[in-house]
Write a structure and sequence with these properties.
about 250 residues, alpha/beta
Amino acid sequence: MLSRVGADAFGADLIRNLRDNGIDTSLIEALSESPTGSAFVTVTPNGENAIIVSPGANRGFGSREVEAAAGDIRKARVLVAQLEVNVEAVESAARLAEESGAHFLLNLAPPREVPDALLRLSDPLVVNEHEAAFLLGDETSSDEAARRLLELGPASVVVTLGAEGAVLAAEGTTQRFPAPEVEVADTTGAGDAFVGALAAELTKGTPLEDAIPYAVLAGAFAVTREGAQGSLPTPDEISELSGGPAA
């Protein structure tokens, strides 16, 4: 994990939780002059959420921090980036991934304007329906949105559809992946669960079209529990939902 937090109790708790879950935190820097980035979430009775983000230390994360970690980034098989930090930092990391032949998975969350070059480096670009509409400037069907996003230059596009699963656009074709029916408690973190599980499968060398069903299950499991990090499933829990062995 390459990021920044504040030198405060929130940052210390986040780093401790990552370490407890086997994450290498040696590239996370704690800044004394900035608070840890925070997200304030409200959840409606049907489980939908609205999120207000206070970036905090994330605002100070740029290309310099990425270049300092270039050696570690070049060793990665999959590099995952979201847009909580400066776009320039994300683009720098994407170019390093391209040089080493790694998958660059860009999750356009929160949605922001990004250079066309960054989209062209993405394989895959992962967006939900709202993020797709932001990029395209209008709302359309999920299949059409995936096809149009592919025309912007990514090697592949995945549009997540909540309870409807996901759609993949790659090499001029689209494919749908349904989600299981589950009881929704809180949709917070479902996109993160999807992206994390997708990246984990890609790291194993799983083809994208085979990794997406696993990621859909991860997202489906996450909505059955409240919270963000606390709702993220383990491989065994995804296995229970799928009715098969752990991936």
